[in-house]
Design brief:
Helices cover about 20% and strands about 10% of the residues. The protein has eight helices and 14 strands. Strands 1-12-11 form a three-stranded antiparallel sheet, covered by helices on one side. Strands 2-3-4 form a three-stranded antiparallel sheet. The longest helix has 18 residues, at about 150-170. The chain is flat and about 65 Å long.
Length: about 325
């Protein structure tokens, strides 16, 4: 299935946003406020595990006071006003502001643009893409800031989320020694060398990518170091999550409710409704939640099996996280 409208390896120690297949949700939005959920144009039910611990108060602090609506100044000659629908008002909130054109030609209001771009950030994106089907234009932050009439609080929230999401996309973490940003090159090795600490201490300094403590034990390793409490929380989730009961897929039992994307390793959760195929919010690859094959491979073995068991059965619980081989 995989109908698209227009969303990171999960790191628990964390473009076009809503091209999600019906029935998918990512646990990342589990604490999103109801008002923000209503602004989403994604297929009902998708949310990201990678941001499961998001603070609701953080989101609320970046929003205008309840009941206030941001509106364009009719006398602003730098804007191109148009008649017609608000192209980002997917749930027909009917915002009262005049409509103005974005650089891609689509019409927006400050509120619909703010809601759309905040949703992109909350789903792990660091770029702002138009939400209209078939439009892949990327808006620069300067344009979003102006056209969304971002408040100082919203600008602070947007810029922090952009920075954090960008670091995550680059596999960057903070060294526990010098607090500098370090990029991991070998995604299958948890032992990471900090060049600044190594130069300062005049000996090799390595830390664990998983527990963020100075490395203990032999290296390289892909599972854990020898520091107390160094465990892979994503793997613990995969190991202990309950089975899912599909409401619309026939004959499937013993399938975990959370899976690691077979392409990038991001954790995603299925709602149990609609078909078994989902689109990963991180890498945008569609796969079968039951057999973990890419959708096209699953359908090649058993065509039209969107709501039926897979020919290869239910894939067992995953005991390792796939490493995204970016090209």
């Amino acid at each position: 299935m995989g109908n698209f409208f227009t969303t990171t390896q999960t790191d628990v120690s964390g473009q076009q946003s809503s091209n999600l297949t019906a029935g998918q949700r990512s646990v990342s939005e589990q604490q999103r406020s109801v008002s923000e959920q209503q602004s989403s144009n994604s297929t009902a039910g998708q949310r990201s595990v990678s941001e499961q611990q998001r603070s609701v108060s953080e989101q609320q602090s970046s929003s205008p006071t309840a009941g206030q609506e941001k509106c364009y100044d009719p006398g602003d000659t730098t804007l191109t006003f148009v008649d017609g629908d608000d192209d980002l008002d997917f749930l027909c909130d009917d915002f009262k502001s005049l409509r103005a054109k974005m650089s891609c030609g689509h019409a927006v209001t400050p509120m619909s643009l703010t809601n759309h771009c905040r949703r992109l950030l909350d789903e792990g994106e660091c770029r702002f893409m138009c939400g209209q089907t078939g439009c892949d234009v990327e808006w620069p932050y300067e344009e979003v800031r102006k056209m969304a009439l971002l408040t100082p609080e919203e600008m602070d929230y947007f810029e922090k989320k952009m920075f954090n999401n960008y670091k995550h996309h680059l596999n960057v973490k903070t060294c526990p020694g010098c607090k500098s940003s370090v990029m991991r090159i070998d995604l299958s090795d948890l032992s990471v060398k900090c060049t600044l600490c190594t130069a300062d201490k005049k000996k090799t300094f390595m830390f664990c990518w998983q527990c963020l403590k100075e490395w203990k034990g032999s290296a390289p390793r892909s599972d854990y170091c020898e520091n107390n409490g160094c465990i892979s929380q994503p793997l613990e989730i995969l190991k202990n999550c309950p089975d899912i009961t599909f409401k619309d897929v026939n004959g499937v039992t013993g399938c975990p409710s959370i899976r690691a994307c077979p392409t990038c390793g991001d954790l995603v959760e299925h709602t149990g409704t609609d078909c078994k195929n989902i689109v990963c919010p991180r890498c945008k690859v569609e796969f079968c939640f039951v057999c973990l094959k890419l959708t096209k491979e699953c359908l090649k073995l058993k065509p039209t099996s969107y709501y039926e068991t897979c020919s290869s059965g239910v894939a067992p619980r995953q005991t390792s996280l796939p490493v995204w081989q970016r090209t």
